[in-house]
Every structure is written in C-alpha cells, then in structure tokens.
Amino acid sequence: MYTINIIKKFQLNEEIVDIKPFGNGHINDTFLVTTKKGEYVLQNLNTFVFPDYDGVARNIDLVTKHINAQIMQEEGHLTKEALSFIPCKDGKTYYYHNGDCYRLRNLVPDSKIYQQTDNPSILEEAGRALGKFIYRLDDFDASQLAEVIPNFHNTKSRYKDFLKAIEEDRACRVNSVPDDIAFIKNRANLVGEIVDKIESKELPLRVTHNDTKLNNILFDENTDKAICLIDLDTVMPGSLLYDFGDAVRISCSTADEEEKDLSKVNFNIDSYRAFTKGFIESIGEKITKTEVEMLNVGAQIMTLEIAMRFLTDYLNGDVYFKVNNDTQNLVRARTQIKMVEEIERNSAKMLDIAHEYYNRVK
Ligand code: GN1
Ligand code: MG
Predict the structure, then answer these.
(1) CATH domain 2-109 topology
(2) What pTM was estimated for this model as a whole?
C-alpha cells in the first residue's frame, strides 16, 4: 500500500507535502512525513522481530502516558519532552495491514540526534536523559508491561542461541571465524552475571528502555540539551545495567559500530566520566549500591551480548539485523569484541568513577 494511503488511516487531516526515509535503525523502516502544517514520523514496525505488535503499542502507550503525567506535574504543562502518538481513525494507536504495523508520532521541533560524539557536555546530557527516564519510571508497575521480545537481554539465553548457531552452521561460516567464536566462549562465565542477580533479587527489576544507543536520544538543536529518549519499542521490565551498559558501548566508543579499522575502536574514559556523571546525578538516591558496583560489569556484559548477537546473526546467514553486504554483521561483531577488550582494560577506572559520583548523591 502506498505510504500516503497509510497516513490517511490516521487522524491527521493535513495536506501531505513530502514523505522520505528517515533515520538508520537496524530493525524498523522509518519515514519523515511533511505536511502543510508540520512534520511527523511514520514508522513501520518489523513484525518478524515484534510479533506482539499490539503489546508493543500498549507498552509504549502506558509508558508515555506515565512520563507525560510526570511532566505535567513537574511543569504544569506538556513540554517538548512529551512524545505523542497520533491515533488512527478507528481509535487504535497503530494501523495494521498485511503484516505491516504503522505508528505515527509528532516530530519533536528543533531536535536532532548524534550518531557519535566525544563532547563531554553532550554525553553528560545523554547520561542525564537516560537516568531521568529510569527515575521517572521508578514508581511504574513493571508487571503491567508485556515482554514483547522474550529474553531480549537475557545474556544466558543469547549465549544458548549463539551455541546453537555454531552447531547448526546454517550459512557455512563457522570455520572462517574461529577467533571471534573463541573470544566469546572464553567469557561464558559472565553470561549469568546480571540475570542471576535479578532472579535472586540482588538487582532490582525496573522498567527499562532496552535499546539505549546514543541515536535514540533527542537533543535540542539550539541548546544541545537532551530532550528525551525515543524508539520505545523495547520498553520492558529489565535491569538498569542493561540500559547503562548498552548506552556506554556506543557513547564511549571512539568509532562507529560499523568501523572496519579496529585500531580506531577505543574506549574514551572522559566520555565515560561525563556519561556516568549525568546518569548517576539524575537517578540520584534511587540507584542501589549493587547497581553502582556493577555499572562497569553492565557495560562489559551488554557489549559482549551484542557482539554475540551480531556474530550469531552472521552465522545464521543474516536473518535478523538489516545488512547491506555479507560481512556487515561480522564487522559489527568485531567492533563490539574490541570494545569488550577495551572495557575490560578500563574496568578499574570505571569503577572508581562510579564510586566518585555515587558518593555525591547517596
Ligand atoms: C537494533 O534498530 P536499532 O538500531 O534501534 C536492536 C538493538 C541493537 C541495535 C544494534 C529490537 O536497534 O537491540 O542494540 O540494533 N533492536 C532490536 O545496533 O533488536
Ligand atoms: Mg530500536
């Protein structure tokens, strides 16, 4: 169906001027819709990755309503931080047709994203936005949320998927990547570190975003202040370490996830300091001592997990992440493996930084 006909299903009675591809996610297709009155973001959710598209829409609705109510309470009115979705003519928050699931939301005015930066004040803002997101959802009952991708950040189950991919060797690629496989297998003892502690209640189960790449944070074009987190499809119950770790692996890297020259992939400790400062300051006393002690472990495990996911997809023949060529998932796996090494080398310093800022808020 033409995109223009899809937009007609929504309660948006504005004349459309332009529709063009937008953003660069690995899962969904996104478009920028310009009308005579404003700009909107239309997204086609990947229903292979998110078969429970109804649960995704409900989760997002519940979480944005909760956050927006807090903004109202704090400010007396809705600010730019508030995301709002335009309902369909039938009242639903999405339009489903033949396996495609579309949502339409406002484009936050004068906003931009960063793919990468080493500017400490921007990274401090990024940490602050993430901390605020978790802070605002602290009193939200996580059991209301559907687990839209079961075991999404269950590193133990991701490791099982990885072993299965090696055994099946569907794309006949196993023999060409022995060192990458060995790197991950050598760290098998780490995969239960977070999930086991959630189960034993040493780590609290919170509401987390679960996809906290820097480009999922909106910034104000004029002031460079962080506005809010976007791309809420994976909002689910989880550990704060998932969000912190997933953010750090990108925000504190000196190179892109797709970089082929691994000598350019390094860990920037100043970026880590700035991000951690913003994060701990905004979440304040709500962060637990165990979480603080494990922030660096969170970064290590989340980076290992995504390395494993990219390598698993490479071994399975590129069935999950969007790719433009046969080695893209391997390149991604290798940047993440290099980041794991870098994080391991810096872990003592990372722990010191976490203590330093925690001591100021506790
Ligand atoms: C996917 O589509 P995007 O880029 O926001 C993935 C994340 C990965 C990321 C790796 C639902 O996110 O988990 O960290 O790629 N999202 C899903 O770049 O699997
Ligand atoms: Mg995403």
Answers:
(1) Phosphorylase Kinase; domain 1 (3.30.200)
(2) 0.96
